[in-house]
């Protein structure tokens, strides 16, 4: 099954648009310098995020969990003229390098990079969001959704990553963290404020559209 996944992923990447030079660099340096490089969204998911952002053309977007900024740059590709993407991460150690990536991108003036606890940073950001991408502490995903759903415009998107949790959501005896992911998915599936579906790419991407 792993071999088939690798073949599928390779095929998907071969049939989508290429990464630009900056994204290739972020990808390469993340695998060279980070202890958990698999947290990177990567080429194919990056193109999915870019496409969804371009369809929405957000004026105000939010990302919770910057990591090394790969997904951030992909999401910024779809910003409306004058649009702003706020991205939040707790890790100060990566700040200088990641900020450098943003400054080298075509969206340097449109990306606002926050270091701190997202629960504390979010209330300082004014406005209604067109697009939100949640890819941080999995234990707080439901909290973020509940806190932000009323701040999303009608027709806006909330994207939540890692909702298939490496297939552990199918385990007969899930561990405590997997149970949290299962509960998140169950709660979102029954929420009538949003239209929803899970895209089974990489580790599962929940796509929710505000009614």
From TrEMBL:
The keyword Mitochondrion does not apply. Gene3D superfamilies: Vaccinia Virus protein VP39. Pfam families: Methyltransf_3 (PF01596). It comes from the Bacteria. The keyword Transferase applies. Coiled coil: none annotated. InterPro entries: Cation-dep_OMT, SAM-dependent_MTases_sf, SAM_O-MeTrfase. Keywords: Methyltransferase, S-adenosyl-L-methionine, Transferase. This is O-methyltransferase. It comes from Sphingobacterium hotanense.
């Amino acid at each position: 099954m792993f071999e088939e996944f690798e073949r599928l992923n390779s095929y998907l990447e071969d049939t989508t648009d290429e990464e630009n030079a900056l994204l290739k660099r972020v990808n390469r340096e993340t695998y060279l310098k980070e202890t958990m490089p698999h947290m990177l969204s990567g080429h194919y998911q990056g193109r999915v995020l870019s496409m969804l952002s371009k369809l929405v053309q957000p004026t105000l977007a939010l990302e919770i969990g910057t990591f090394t900024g790969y997904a951030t740059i992909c999401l910024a590709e779809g910003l409306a003229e004058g649009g702003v993407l706020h991205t939040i991460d707790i890790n100060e150690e990566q700040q200088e390098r990641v900020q450098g990536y943003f400054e080298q991108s075509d969206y340097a003036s449109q990306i606002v990079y926050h270091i701190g606890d997202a629960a504390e940073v979010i209330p300082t950001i004014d406005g209604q969001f067109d697009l939100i991408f949640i890819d941080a502490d999995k234990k707080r995903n439901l909290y973020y959704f509940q806190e932000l759903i009323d701040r999303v415009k009608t027709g806006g998107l909330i994207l939540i990553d890692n909702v298939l949790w490496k297939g552990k959501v199918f385990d007969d005896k899930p561990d405590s963290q997997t149970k949290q992911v299962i509960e998140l998915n169950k709660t979102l599936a029954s929420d009538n404020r949003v239209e929803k579906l899970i895209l089974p790419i990489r580790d599962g991407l929940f796509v929710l559209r505000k009614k």
